[in-house]
Amino acid sequence: MPGGCRSPGRQRVQAVQYNSQMNLPAIQAALCERGIDAWLFYDHHHRDPIAYSVLGLPQDMHVTRRWYYLIPAQGEPLKLNHRVEPHHLSSLPGRQRHYGAWQEMWEQLRELLRPHKRVAMQYSPKNQIMSVSLVDGGTLELVRGFGIEVVSSADLVARFEATVSPEQIATHFEARDAMDQIMEACFQWVGHQIRNGGTDEFAVQQWLAEAFRRECLVTDDLPVVGVNENSGNPHYSPTADSSKPIRKGDFLLIDMWAKKDKARAVYYDITWTGFAAAAPSERHYEIFGLVRDARDVGIRTVQEALAAKKKICGWEVDAAVRGFIAKAGFGACFVHRTGHSIGTEVHANGANMDNLETHDEREVIANSLFSIEPGIYLPEFGVRSEIDMLVRNGAAEVTGRIQKELVLI
Fold it and tell me: What distance in Å separates the CA atoms of residue 18 and residue 368, rounded to the nearest whole number?
């Protein structure tokens, strides 16, 4: 970009960059496919970022009154605004209605919904998909009180927020090309430092941050660099004060995620592990081998389902991977989901590979990206092996390098 690259550390990028404008025909086609009469969007004080993303509304819009936007499966959308803020939805197609008093709002909303029986909202039964479950309980009561069946918009959100264009896929591969090389160079640099006076976790993290700057990569947080017992903490992050030294005979985990510093770029997210000696212990080999093989179970589960033209949901991928690790006796040591959706945010709004933290029934769909990253975490060290997968053209592919053996640092 002109003027150089931004600093990579702790830049929070809002999950609102998937669509520049609403695709009304595609939304209505998706509603028809799912047998849903309409999709009702509602917001007050920017409670629902999904609405702004899917509808292509400006993020800086000043919102102090409730608004509603109804997209029917067929026909013209309808808008409902307060008279104090009558033009908030003026950029969207459809007929406009206004309200003043709360009683009028209820009546107008009832009229908007009268032709429909089954309406999608940003709601998830039992709050299973937390990132989609944004509508407050009172609004749900109000809509249901009109005789409406409210269904989850989770699959619709995945379709219109968590799929990526060919141009975005290209940015993912650009990030991959840079980051795969950075990962390899980092392990080499750590080995050189160990042989010439030593290093520590924080120094490695800062080395990675500088490498990101050189490659015009940005991220929402700095990489995880954990040695020995710290590698057993999935969300460990070193600081200058708490950083542990890395010496010969130590086990090292590096988890890093970033994207190119350009509009609507997509993340690449990987985790590798290595050992600072020529001969890791049998225990290190055992745990690494189990995690590697569990990761490959996840890869095959997705690829075989798509090859057979079978629908597969996120929870099914997690169940296969988790079952493999549990059978080996380490189920209690696998403490997080198998993977997550990836987009312009490192955690996007598509299907997660999850049957632990949630039961994710969202389908793994075309033009989606996600991670496969099982882990086994012991008191003395932890292993995670993470790759990214892309679904397109009826198949699923691993987008970057795949770690087969422990890196000997």
Answer: 12
Strands (E), 228-357: 245-246, 251-260, 268-275, 341-342
Q: Where are the beta strands (DSSP E) in 276-379?
A: 341-342, 368-372, 375-377
- The pTM of the full predicted model, rounded to 2 decimals, is 0.92
pLDDT exceeds 70 at position 278: yes
d(CA 105, CA 326): 53
What distances in angstroms separate CA 125 from CA 101, 284, 348, one per listed residue? 31, 41, 20
Domains of the chain plus CATH, in order, are 24-161 (3.40.350.10), 166-408 (3.90.230.10)
Between CA 171 and CA 178, with CA 175 as vertex, the angle to 5 degrees is 140
Contact 152, 158 (CB under 8 A): no
Adjacent-strand bridge partners of 155:
none
- Under the banding of pLDDT at 50, 70 and 90, the label for residue 392 is very high
- Per-residue model confidence as pLDDT tens digits over 206-264: 999 999 999 999 999 999 999 999 999 999 999 999 999 999 999 999 999 999 999 99
CA distance 283 to 132: 41
User: What is the rounded CA–CA span in Å between residue 322 and residue 68?
Assistant: 41
